[in-house]
Design a protein that fits this description.
Elements (H helix, E strand, L loop, with lengths): L1 H21 L5 E5 L2 E4 H14 L7 H21 L6 H19 L2 H8 L3 H27 L5 H4 L1
Antiparallel strand pairs: 1-2
Helix pairs in contact: 2-3, 3-6, 4-6
């Protein structure tokens, strides 16, 4: 009796493990310092780009991954160099982007319908991305500002 109970329990555990292993929730596809990049992030960015350009090939995911890795590297360096981005700058950039999409779709309601989310939800969702992008741009400007190239070097 005890043996059959243990066998049944073992089979149940094996079945649960097999089921759990076949369902992948997400996958880490890159690591930059202590920041991870998930497949879902790249898929979501690709889906956003598809809204603007429906004929975008799936191979563009590689370019998106490259952009995300570059941004994370620049943000990491910006943290080390104490490059600061204020919340007002982030909010201003988000507001500008929302205005752009509202003008593109004609109204806030239409934009919310297309996005499937309210403007407030969109702002909350995209705030970290905007902060990282602004920080990366600022860091890139800091790096490039010290580079001096003469016309002879270009030639």
């Amino acid at each position: 009796m005890k043996f059959s109970y243990l066998l049944l329990l073992a089979l149940l555990v094996v079945r649960l493990n097999t089921t759990a292993q076949t369902q992948v929730a997400d996958k880490i596809i890159a690591i930059v310092s202590d920041k991870i990049i998930l497949r879902s992030e790249i898929d979501a960015a690709y889906a956003d780009y598809l809204k603007e350009n429906p004929e975008l090939p799936e191979s563009e995911k590689c370019s998106i991954l490259e952009q995300v890795v570059t941004t994370k590297m620049l943000v990491e360096q910006a943290e080390r160099d104490s490059v600061i981005v204020t919340e007002e700058e982030v909010e201003g950039a988000i507001d500008n982007r929302v205005r752009y999409f509202v003008s593109m779709y004609g109204s806030e309601e239409k934009m919310e319908e297309v996005a499937g989310k309210t403007i407030y939800q969109l702002k909350d969702e995209y705030r970290p991305m905007f902060k990282d992008n602004i920080t990366a741009q600022r860091m890139q400007q800091t790096i490039i500002s010290s580079v001096k190239i003469t016309p002879q070097e270009v030639t």
